[in-house]
Amino acid sequence: MFGGAALSWPASAAAQAQRVSVIGVLGTTSFDSVPVRFSAFHQGLKETGYVEGQNLAIEYRLAEGQPDRLPALAADLVRRQVAVIATNGGSFPALAAKAATSTIPIVFTGIGDDPMALCLVASLSRPGGNATGVSLTSSELVEKSLELLRELAPSADTIALIRGEGTDSTQYWSEHVAAEARAVGLKLTVAARAVGLNVLVPHVQIDSDFEAVFASIVHQGAGAVMVAATPVFVRRRAQIVALAARYRLPTIYPWREYCEAGGLMSYGPDLLDAYLQDGRYTGHILNGAVPGDLPVQMPTKFELVINLNTAKALGIQISRLLNARADQVIE
Fold first, then answer.
1. pTM of the model
2. From CA 304, how far away is CA 169, in angstroms rounded?
3. CA of 197: how far to CAs of 60, 216, 225, 253, 323, in Å?
């Protein structure tokens, strides 16, 4: 009996080793840019029974802030026949994955646009096809951010919206995404004019010289700034934050990483929760779930982060009420 059991161990171990799932991660940013987000993704995978290096292998394809590389990176993952492609960092990776395959399941996160308008899914409740994930779209984000910005800079009569409009070097910039960027600018303009504010929306390529951008909006009289949720801007957050400080412009950002780099305030969906859900969905699909049956998740958690050191440097007094509403205060 013992001899038979001993003989069975190698075969059992070999079978276990073969049960390693392989997924692809397609994104615009590197680990160095947002490591905590990737940690949340791994936590979601772990909750569904998958740990990299144990029963999971991950093929990483990260564009390092160059979205024109994404179609080729997506095609490479398809050639490698990964079980799932998890995308992050905005609409670019999701669109590249969708264009590359109609059969491999796709789980997206960081989508700041309407996934239905981007033709990623048929509906939010029943996506159909091979894609599902987490959308960060919220109709109230622009108005709420404007409200907070007015609290920071009540005397400003002109504000500037800095949003990415594409690159000069690539044809990959989707018309859908460009339209969404214009829609954000229009929405802010309408909301601002309703309360008597002027809005500047400079033409900002995602590989723009931000020095020139800030000099231009200051010359045109901007008294405060809103930075839109353009994923590739995260890699250049230190530069953007430094320019806002140099020109002494109260600025609200979309994500906490800007405040951790010295930005004044951020407000937006909790991205760690989104990446956690991304990992869970990926694990569920590995366990047999059909992506078309998994509803697209919408943001339920939003976070307000305030950097009191930056407020002090700008001479801005943060009210007790605003301070109490913050999810995190950096001192």
1. 0.81
2. 35
3. 44, 18, 12, 19, 25
